[in-house]
Specification:
Blueprint: H1 3-40, H2 46-53, H3 58-72, H4 80-89, H5 93-108, E1 118-120, H6 131-136, E2 143-149, H7 154-169, E3 175-181, H8 186-196, E4 200-204, H9 207-216, E5 224-228, E6 234-236, H10 245-258
Parallel strand pairs: 1-4, 2-3, 3-4
Antiparallel strand pairs: 2-5, 5-6
Helix pairs in contact: 1-2, 2-3, 3-5, 7-10
């Protein structure tokens, strides 16, 4: 190898080393900022935190897009004020367009009918402590698998994706799926049922009913599942989740055998 070639290779390696060091320095600085954001994301004004901690650029655009997509996935359409925040925080037009498409897809759900195999239970006004018994009364003779959920709850939606498998496993059995939504707006509730095709019987609680059920059955978090026996009594107020298909199936079949 000639001397000038050796010098060129040495210079190239030095440049590459400098580039790598610069990249690592930039990524460390950016990761530190991301870490600060994640540590503070529980603050009420998450948009202000993003604007304060992350400098303009693709990093802020990505974090902002994830923030607004979380809102859309509840599913909730963005308000005019939130679209102003999108424009203030984000520069990347492709990500903005992606948000608009996702937002329009949710808005379009309002025009759709409820899917087949979805029953919206009538409101049970002034039931007091008998609210849950009133919900279950029409289903005596069946095992009822109750799902306390909300569209804004990530683990709830993850479990709902497993429900299809569970329902196939118990197809033909005397079992009913009763979905009780809590702390949720009617529009978001209806959109989620349509978007994810959540079959079963559905009931949307108001604030009073949510508090009543949470206190009566010690529901401190969701998702939460319960099993109701054929006699209409709660036999397990903390039942296995849909992702635990085998455990749920065994519990349901044992109740049907007793019946």
């Amino acid at each position: 190898m000639k001397i000038d070639e050796i010098g060129h290779e040495r210079d190239t390696n030095q440049i590459r080393t400098m580039q790598n060091e610069y990249r690592d320095s930039v990524m460390k600085s950016y990761n530190d900022r991301i870490r600060m954001y994640l540590e503070q994301r529980t603050y009420k004004d998450e948009v202000a935190i993003i604007a304060d901690i992350l400098p303009p650029g693709i990093g802020r655009d990505i974090v902002s897009a994830r923030h607004f997509l979380a809102q859309i996935s509840r599913p909730d359409t963005l308000s005019k004020e939130q679209w102003k925040e999108v424009d203030q925080l984000m520069q990347n037009n492709e990500l903005k367009e992606y948000l608009r498409d996702a937002n329009e897809a949710i808005a379009d759900l309002d025009e759709e009918a409820m899917p087949d195999k979805v029953i919206v239970a009538p409101k049970l006004y002034n039931q007091g402590d008998s609210l849950f018994q009133a919900m279950m009364k029409p289903h005596l003779g069946k095992v009822v698998y109750v799902d306390f959920w909300a569209p804004w709850c990530g683990p709830c939606m993850s479990e709902i994706r497993h429900s299809g498998t569970l329902k196939k496993e118990l197809d033909g059995k005397k079992v009913l799926y009763y979905c009780i939504c809590i702390n949720c707006k009617k529009e978001s509730w209806e959109r989620a049922i349509k978007k994810y095709n959540i079959s079963g019987e559905h009931y949307l609680t108001d604030d009073r009913e949510s508090s009543l059920l949470s206190e009566r059955y010690q529901i401190t978090g969701i998702p939460r599942y319960m099993l109701i026996g054929p006699e209409g009594k709660v036999v397990n107020n903390d039942a296995p989740r849909p992702s635990q298909v085998g455990a749920v199936k065994a519990a349901v079949l044992s109740l049907l055998e007793v019946d």
